[in-house]
Amino acid sequence: xxxxxxxxxxxxxxxxxxxxxxxxxxxxxxxxxxxxxxxxxxxxxxxxxxxxxxxxxxxxxxxxxxxxxxxxxxxxxxxxxxxxxxxxxxxxxxxxxxxxxxxx
Amino acid sequence: xxxxxxxxxxxxxxxxxxxxxxxxxxxxxxxxxxxxxxxxxxxxxxxxxxxxxxxxxxxxxxxxxxxxxxxxxxxxxxxxxxxxxxxxxxxxxxxxxxxxxxxxxxxxxxxxxxxxxxxxxxxxxxxxxxxxxxxxxxxxxxxxxxxxxxxxxxxxxxx
Lengths: 104, 159
Hints:
The structure holds 2 protein chains of 2 kinds. Chain A is mainly α. Chain A has helices at residues 27-36, 43-59, 65-70, 76-82, 87-94; strands at 2-6, 9-13. Chain A has a two-stranded antiparallel sheet. In chain B, 36% of the residues lie in helices and 15% in strands. Chain B has helices at residues 21-36, 75-78, 83-97, 103-112, 121-126, 144-150, and strands at residues 11-16, 40-45, 116-120, 140-142, 155-158. The chains are: A mainly alpha, B alpha/beta. The interface between A and B is medium-sized, with 22 and 22 residues.
């Protein structure tokens, strides 16, 4: 566990860079976490993030990419464009959720 | 592998040589998982693996209890008409329950995620298949030597 200093915000991240406590999350933190991954958040990014946060609250588990495309309504191609090179972990990271464990 | 699970260097090539459900899905699941992790993926379909990309067969793959002790069914039962169809239907239902897509949708997802799909030229000729018999997302039909070029520096899985 390490505390990662973000601009004026200090949140605890695990060894893989995921938020330890999802409740620490807010939109400013998401912007910072995304920036660290080289991603500038657009409305479509927010749609993905908001869906993941909402789905996590409702189901208690981090949504799979398949769920984000099927239920969240963001097609696979776009998802890989929004969060290039490894969207599964990047989405979860920016949304302040833990490392996804789903296989799909 | 870098800290954020993002490694542009890592490449995975999966050779799919079998056309039963239990041999098709591991390749599809691993290809998709690799893409979700940011790993470059190439799939090469050959011999019975051609069924996975054959439009007429892809969503009708079978699993047989014959010669498969893991299925827990005596071989003598496995030879009866309808048993293979029943075992296949059961397996498909279980796969669906876990929210894994049918083969065509799975390949489409892999392709949309940037995975490359190649058919083996020799297997095409052997099975008298034409490009139009193949799933639309298949990128190309290539020979073994071209596969060698494509798989340079990659980790290779033979299924």
